Amino acid sequence: MHANVMERPGQPPRRISRPVRFGEVTIGGGAPIVVQSMCSSDTRDAPATGAQIAALAEAGCEVVRVAVPNREAAAALPEIVRGSPLPVVADIHFDHRLALLALQAGVHGLRLNPGNIRDPTKVREVVRGAAAHGVPIRIGVNAGSLPPVEVPEGRLPPTVEELRATLPERLVEAALGHVRILEGLDFHDTIISLKAFDVPLTIAANRLLAAQVPYPLHVGITEAGLPWAGTIRSAVGIGILLFEGLGDTVRVSLTGDPVEEVRVAYEILRALDLRRRGPTMISCPTCGRTEVDLVRLARQVEEHLRGIEDPITVAVMGCVVNGPGEAREADYGIAGGKGKGAVFRHGEVVATVPEEELVEALMAEIERGLAFKRLR
Amino acid sequence: MHANVMERPGQPPRRISRPVRFGEVTIGGGAPIVVQSMCSSDTRDAPATGAQIAALAEAGCEVVRVAVPNREAAAALPEIVRGSPLPVVADIHFDHRLALLALQAGVHGLRLNPGNIRDPTKVREVVRGAAAHGVPIRIGVNAGSLPPVEVPEGRLPPTVEELRATLPERLVEAALGHVRILEGLDFHDTIISLKAFDVPLTIAANRLLAAQVPYPLHVGITEAGLPWAGTIRSAVGIGILLFEGLGDTVRVSLTGDPVEEVRVAYEILRALDLRRRGPTMISCPTCGRTEVDLVRLARQVEEHLRGIEDPITVAVMGCVVNGPGEAREADYGIAGGKGKGAVFRHGEVVATVPEEELVEALMAEIERGLAFKRLR
Fold first, then answer.
1. Sheet of strand B313-317: strand arrangement
2. Domain architecture of chain A: domains with CATH
3. Is A293 on the interface with B (CB under 8 A)?
């Protein structure tokens, strides 16, 4: 595994859900929070989809979803599944035949809402197929695709405010409708997602749902936008849910390259010390006290750290007097000054060098430290 | 005001603090959450600092802080304060004379820890000066600058784990030490910040503090890093605090241009519907179903929306069938398809146009809508 779970006193307790498995990857039951994404490639193009899955896996993605909107896409699934280093989840909207084809192709999960298939015979066929293949089903309800509220005859339709106020309950109710269909067929390998663009709504709905079912939760914010704004909205929404202990697998949705979704997901998990991939960098904002080009220095260090997979913490501080002390939680660090700089480890200065040798001296110190650790 | 407070049912209640004022800007007491930043310019260079303050104000910054590390910086303050459209807070570390010079220069706030000045006569002089000028004092304690734990003779020093477990309490205790000095001098125009790079620690400390004092809280995550990672860490940490109702003013700390700090702060506030500046954009992630270049389309719309200050919501969806319905919460939207696209308002399709005219048709619809709204 690339990533490790951090044990951390004081972290709020996680909700322990009934675990399910996409292939070798466990979701829920106290397993590390799983990072997933979705291909933006045309599923019919198996080589392009395979290349995107490889890039996602390289970035740390652990489960990948592909859209299966038609038979041509379903026909490409065997090749995609065969070549994929990750479990593949087939995303299906209404057509139960596509679900059956996906199961035959060996996918590791289905994303479908059984209520959308309608015909009970067809639903039974799909659910029995999933059970036979040991394949979990993810139910997903988004605020935008809720069914309309039924208004009894002679009654006034609800106002916009009333509709808005009942949204969390209606999201949960829609998900529970699908859950009941699965439970009625004695199927329990279920994951549920409730998503909206609206962060407080997403949180309210997930809290309600978590109290009512034992299943793992897939969390995310839908249609969050282009990478910059979408990253912030996702970090706020997913961050709050995870901090409350809710969420067994995470998908960040961005209008852009799905590889960026994976990078953002890990950074959210890192911010809460839930998982880590590679080095963590601390760097202070520049201020009127800074006598070194801190932004350039921080970027250089970031660049140099790219090859390292160990979960070390590295600080880049603007001030030799306060820097090493303020960053004493860091494993390694540098602090710039007037032409000179200090390299430190756990707050202790280990070397003072000219500013232009600072990054090099830091990297040498890190490599010494990591080599020593590997020897032990 | 550029920004407006959103009233929103279901939003968790905010902690109501004792309000203080930096110039015309109220912090706490139920006022809108104030966005602030800090100049990275050399304070001694008044024109450069003035230019940076103007750029920050343009981005929506409402209070600006400048470092005052020496007499030359203090000497530049009168010119900076005179030219600033924003209240100016002087950041002072130890030297009480710099605080007195800043007060004479007409600054609207001080950031200093009275305990760091040590000599009670000097502390009294500064605090009386602040009171006479009607200037609040922000106390700030960071995890990195905590005083060492005193070990009684004959006792073993605490282990690293013990030190870590008591960090939230020690941060609060350090802040309360400074608070007691101010209260002892009958000074109550106080704002407090407790910050760390560590998000769960920052949250734990702020929760503890909020229960013990009536003062407004300045919230942020220190040394969060370069813009990409720092933005995510800040969004998670500040987002959780604000969602819990904690925080009267926000500073995002990034190693980079402070204007970016302001943009990120507003995006965090927007994600929680606490404040809004300009349009909000919803856009779906591309998937194997998308038949339009959604990323390009979304970027074009983002570009075109830049001139608009109204807090409208605009959706850019990949699919004509589901898009308008899924984004019915949006005021305006477009959905792409095979060469053609739809313009919609509140989920109703109002026009179908060739794909290359989609953005233009959307902007025309928005301008019509806004013009109509202004007429009323």
1. B280-283, B313-317, B332-336, B340-345, B348-354
2. 5-271 (3.20.20.20), 280-375 (3.30.413.10)
3. no
